[in-house]
Write a structure and sequence with these properties.
CATH topology of the largest domain: Nucleotidyltransferase, domain 5
Strand content: 15-25%
Helix content: 25-40%
Number of domains: 2
Strand order of the largest sheet: 5-4-3-2-1-6-8-7
Largest sheet: 8 strands, mixed
CATH class of the largest domain: Alpha Beta
Number of helices: 15
CATH architecture of the largest domain: 2-Layer Sandwich
Order of helices and strands: EEEEEHEEHHEHHHEEEHHHHHEHHHEH
CATH superfamily of the largest domain: ATPase, nucleotide binding domain
Structural class: alpha/beta
Length: 396
C-alpha cells in the first residue's frame, strides 16, 4: 500500500497528515498531528484517523530546536509507523502562488526559486513553507513534492475584483488582490456540493474564522470576491493582524513617529488584531473568558468587522443564499456566529439559537431566507487530493 504525507509548515508550528492510498486511489487518513510552540518548548501530538492518541512528545525548554530538526524527527516517526506502506509524495501548503501558479505543481529547483521571490508578499508563511520543502528534499532527495497554493482558488475570479486603484503599470507588475485561504475554500465548496447541492449552486459567503481570518463570496462554488488582497494582512481583523487599515496610518507612523518599515510590519502582523485591541491575548477563547472591558471590545470589533465585510461581499454577489462558518472560531464559537448573523438579519438571516449552541450542521431557522451552515474545513485532505491529481493526472 502507498501513502501520501501533507505538510503545513508555519513560523511556530508544523501540521501534518498521513493518508493511505488504496489501489483505487482512495484516500484514508491514517495519522495526523501538529508540532507547536516551535522556538519556545516544542510539543507534538499525533492521533490516528479515528482520533486515538498515537504519540505525544515534548521538548521542554528546548527553544533551540529548529524546523529542520523537528521535521527530521517527524519523518523518522512516520518511517517507523508505515508498516510496509510506501510514501510516494509530500504535498505542501504554500501560501502564495503569485500570478503564475494557478494550479498545484511538482516542485523543482526552478519552481522553488520562483516561489522564493514571493516571500515578501507572505512573510509570516511563505519562508517556512519553502523551508519545509528544502528540508524534505535533503532528507528524502528522490521523493516527489507538490506545492498546493492558497491563492489558486481565487485565481480565475473576475479581473475587476483583483485591482487596486493604483497606476496600471504597478498592477501589471503583480501588485493586485490575490486572496488566500484557498485550500480551505476549495474544500468547503466541494463539501457543500455534497451536503447541499442547491445551496452550493447559489450565492454563498464562506467565513473562514480562525487566528487568520477571511471571507469568500462564491457563486456556483467558484470564488467571485474575497476579503484578503495583496497579502494575508488584508481584510478582517485577526488574532494578531490588523486587517484592512487606512494607508494613511502607515504613512503617519513612518513620517511622524519615526517607525521604520520593519517596525510597522511587525506591529501590523504581530501586535495588532485581537491581541492589539485587548492587550490580553490573540485567542478568542481567552478573551471570552476574560471580564476585562478591553477583551469585550476586541470581540465586539471582530464581530462588527466580519459583518461589515460580509455585507460588502453580499453586494459583490448581488444577494446571498447561504453562509458557511468554518475554521477554529467559525466551527466552535457559537456566540461569535450568532452575533455576526444578528448583524446580518437585514439580509434575511434568522439564527436558530438552540441549533447554534449545539454546533449543529445547520444553524438557521427554516423560515430564514439565508441558510446558515457550519462545516469543518480540512485543508490536509484538499492538499492530498491535489497531490494525487499531479502524480496521476486529472483534477482533484
Amino acid at each position: 500500500m502507498k501513502a501520501v504525507v501533507t505538510l503545513n509548515s508555519g513560523s511556530s508550528s508544523i501540521k501534518f497528515a498521513l493518508f493511505d492510498l488504496d489501489h483505487g486511489r482512495h484516500l484514508a487518513l491514517s495519522a495526523g498531528g501538529k508540532i507547536e510552540r516551535i522556538g519556545i518548548a516544542p510539543r507534538l501530538e499525533i492521533h490516528s484517523g479515528d482520533g486515538a492518541l498515537l504519540s505525544r512528545h515534548e521538548w521542554p525548554d528546548q527553544s533551540e530546536h529548529t524546523h529542520d530538526e523537528l521535521l527530521a524527527w517527524l519523518f523518522d516517526w512516520i518511517g517507523t509507523h508505515l508498516e510496509g506502506r510506501e510514501v510516494i509524495a509530500v504535498g505542501h501548503r504554500v501560501v502564495h502562488g503569485g500570478t503564475d501558479f494557478a494550479r498545484p505543481c511538482l516542485v523543482d529547483d526552478i519552481v522553488l526559486g520562483e516561489l522564493e521571490r514571493l516571500c515578501p508578499l507572505a512573510p509570516l508563511h511563505q519562508p517556512h513553507n519553502l523551508a519545509a520543502i528544502r528540508t524534505i528534499a535533503r532528507l528524502v532527495p528522490d521523493l516527489a513534492q507538490i506545492a498546493c497554493f492558497d491563492t489558486a482558488f481565487h485565481h480565475d475570479r473576475p479581473a475587476l475584483t483583483t485591482r487596486f486603484a493604483i497606476p496600471r503599470e504597478l498592477h501589471d507588475q503583480g501588485i493586485r488582490r490575490y486572496g488566500f485561504h484557498g485550500l480551505s475554500y476549495d474544500y468547503i465548496a466541494r463539501r457543500l456540493a455534497e451536503l447541499d447541492p442547491q445551496m452550493a449552486a447559489g450565492r454563498v459567503i464562506v467565513a473562514h474564522l480562525g487566528n487568520g481570518a477571511s471571507l469568500c463570496a462564491m457563486a456556483g462554488g467558484k470564488s467571485l470576491d474575497t476579503s484578503m488582497g495583496f497579502t494575508a494582512l488584508d481584510g478582517l481583523m485577526m488574532g494578531t493582524r490588523s486587517g484592512t487599515i487606512d494607508p494613511g496610518v502607515i504613512l503617519y507612523l513612518q513620517n511622524e513617529t519615526g517607525m521604520s518599515a520593519q517596525d510597522v510590519e511587525h506591529m501590523l502582523y504581530h501586535r495588532s488584531g485581537l491581541l492589539g485591541v485587548s492587550g490580553i491575548s490573540s485567542d478568542m477563547r481567552t478573551l471570552t473568558e476574560s471580564s476585562a472591558p478591553e477583551a469585550a471590545e476586541a470581540i465586539d470589533l471582530f464581530v462588527w468587522r466580519a459583518a461589515r465585510e460580509a455585507a460588502a461581499l453580499a453586494a459583490s454577489l448581488g444577494g446571498v443564499d447561504g453562509i458557511v462558518f468554518t475554521a477554529g472560531i467559525g466551527e466552535n464559537d457559537a456566540n461569535v456566529r450568532s452575533r455576526i448573523c444578528r448583524r446580518l438579519d437585514w439580509l434575511g438571516v434568522e439564527v436558530n439559537e438552540i441549533a447554534n449552541a449545539a454546533n449543529d450542521p445547520v444553524i438557521s431557522l427554516p423560515s430564514s431566507r439565508v441558510k446558515v451552515r457550519v462545516i469543518p474545513t480540512d485543508e490536509e485532505h484538499m492538499i492530498a487530493l491535489h497531490t494525487l491529481a499531479i502524480l496521476f493526472g486529472g483534477t482533484a
